[in-house]
Design a protein that fits this description.
Blueprint: E1 3-4, H1 13-28, H2 36-65, E2 67-76, E3 81-88, H3 96-107, E4 112-120, H4 125-132, E5 138-142, H5 153-162, E6 166-170, E7 178-184, E8 188-190, E9 194-204, E10 208-215, E11 218-226, E12 229-236, E13 240-249, E14 259-267, E15 271-276, H6 283-289, E16 291-295, E17 307-311, H7 321-329, E18 333-337, E19 359-361, E20 371-378, H8 395-408, E21 415-421, E22 425-433, H9 438-446, H10 456-467, E23 473-480, H11 488-500, E24 503-509, H12 518-527, E25 532-533, H13 541-545, E26 559-563, E27 579-580, E28 586-588, E29 593-598, E30 603-610, E31 613-618, H14 637-647, E32 657-660, E33 663-664, E34 669-674, E35 687-690, E36 693-698, E37 704-708, E38 711-716, H15 730-735, E39 741-742, H16 747-758, E40 759-767, H17 769-794
Parallel strand pairs: 3-4, 3-5, 5-6, 6-39, 8-14, 15-16, 15-17, 17-18, 18-31, 20-21, 20-23, 23-24, 24-25, 33-38
Antiparallel strand pairs: 1-2, 2-40, 7-9, 9-12, 10-11, 10-13, 13-14, 19-28, 21-22, 26-27, 26-29, 29-30, 30-31, 32-34, 34-36, 35-36, 37-38
Helix pairs in contact: 1-2, 2-17, 4-5, 8-9, 10-11, 11-12
Length: 796
Amino acid sequence: MIYIKYPIVLAAFAPVLALLFFVVRREFVKIKGKDEKELKRRDLARKYVFISRALIFLLLLGALAVPFTIKEVTVQGTPKLKIFVDNSRSFELFDNAAVSKLQSELENQIPVVTRVVAEGNESAIGDSLLSNIQGNDNVLLISDGNNNKGRSLGDMMLFANMLNATINAVELSPVNKDAAVYIKGPAKTTDDVENKFEVFVNSVGELEYNLLVTVDGDAVLSRKLSGSQKVEFSKTLPVGYHKILAQIVVEDYFPENNAFYKVVKVEPKPKVLFVSKTTSPYNEMMRKLYDSDFETAMPPDIKKYSAVVLNNMGANDVGKVDTLSSYLVDGNGMVVIGGQSSFDKGNYKESLFETLLPVKVGEKEEKRQEAAVVILIDIAGDTSASFRGGSLYTKEDVEKALAISIMDNLRGSDRVAVLAFNNDVYEVSELSRLAGKREELVDKISSLNFFGGTFIPGAIEDSSKILRNEYGNKNIILITDGGSPTNYEYARKFTKDATFTGVTLHTIGVGVDLQTDVKFLKELAELGNGAYFEPSEVQRVKILFQGYEKGKEDEKPPFYLDVLNSHHFITEDVKLTAGISGFNTVIPKGSANSLVVTSSNRPVITVWRYGLGRAAAITTDDGTSWAGEMLTKGNSVILTKTINWAIGDLSRNKEYDVDIQDVYLGEPIIINVKSEKRPVYAGIKFSKLDENLYTATATTTQQGFYDFLETPVAVNYNKEVGSVGFNPELSNLVRLSKGRMFSPDDIGGIIEKVKQDSKRTKIESVSYSWVLLLAALFLFLAEVGIRRLYENKIYK
């Protein structure tokens, strides 16, 4: 295929042609005599000169435009190897003698340069790769693949691929046995609530051990186990700070990772106001979980409450809207529960109170607007990695399938554009109605090639430009495994900019957790007023875009409930099995987040931020008539989590509070204090962050429990000895740079791979300007020669 480097040069041909016509006609060809025969000869000569010179100028302009083709050229390089050796503590579990033998045998056969990529308690393998790779490198990584600092290993493997460097790795077996324990569970909770904790033991080698877990010195768990395990326990804790210690009794390599310390802060039950004209089925739950006050009308002063719950109240019964508005803006929460006297049945439509809510009253027959959707597909080179450990499919395969599946969940009247992106953005299909073009889109998506890096901000920006002047329900669906951390801030900015123009951003994370930045993609979805989906949840897109058109909605109860966004605090780990017999007819506002809907997409739980506060709308009733099943075991948790979300920070209304997060050795202990006066503590200097907010840092060299300002904090073993054993994802990661895993005794295989990879394929452009220049010169000489012969013949 021939490309043009400077196509704009060709635009000069038209004015050049006009000028040439003028010159040739007036000045260029002159023939003596003025009889009719000579005039005909003159005209013929001028036409001949005009045509030949036009062709000559066209050839010259074509040469200046630089036509070229692209071809692959194989370059034979000199086989040489860079060996990157892990000298970190976690790698001590492996046979260093085998490493030394491997290095020695390789040095005897090919040129070798050795570098240390991790040492002591720091495994910044990604940063070391960045510092030592120059391009066209052959690298052998001798490491356990556990990266605990700096840039991610996946990003650096992709960077290596962009530099035409290949990173291979050696799969070693551990020679020392070790087990590490850690605890997962809430750091903050409330009084008289049952809390679930998980204790994990990561074992390298076959080890038997005794696991002992204590809470404030009292044993809650004692078991004899072997190998890697996960054990759960539940505990109800009183107000105050509580110290949890998990220990394994075993003789292994790293004794310090045999204990894990955790501090849990238990706050008093938050003070909540429950306003209802009648006795509610919620009352028992409210008494048990919160310090609740029950009223039949809104009191004039609500500042002392962390949240207000309004049950089946009409717009005229909620009191002064200005009071509620200021209450929310100050950072408090509100939950509005539906029923026969609220929302569409309570005069909310176009009222001041409706402005505080994440929903607006909508008619039952109202159709959801047609959607304009940009599907963004990440085609970076790292998507060639396996979708899941042991999976036969790559992330590339899954992304294509997801994009096609999304189209299946859209209506023919919806307008769809497809963009692919890596470092740049490519238009696969312009925005147009889906009807009649699905097969064409399937073919284009299926033929996408995946290469290059990942630049999400540019993709979001280009997508929002496409949707800027569109009407209706405007959406971006981003399918990716995440981007480089250096792009995150710009991605956040462009997402916020998109929401200002009415665009909603949804994200789908593809890949294993090690390679998928789920936290970042969830954050983008939240900023974009959208939802985050796992690949298995993509069918929920149908709920998002196929509205409740008249004649297609649920006609008879029960109306079964679906979790639309399973990655919000309220819905995470919630499995709903409830149905409802009625609901209030509302439509989510543009910046709201629909969490739970009926199977026909009727909103049931919708939330949004109002100022610093949080407002939630539960648009079915309290169980009196419509939603009794929502109060059953397993379903009622969605209600308590909605109220907890509205409450937010349990320490928000305290005049004095100390907040310290548990840390690992080597990390600073950050002490944040809310106080009217600057805190004083021996050896620590506090700096003022904001009004009544101070911060300081402290360090320690020993693990265990420590106290600052009568507040305990847990300091655990260094992260380096928490990730022990061979990283099972390393084999997937090296594939990103077209590398392979080798056994330590496969010297021949390693050398053969180095020789093979030393033959580098380069992309070169071949210019054809010289061909056009020669053609122009030949044509010019031919024209001059023919013209001379013609003139000599005439005047001979």
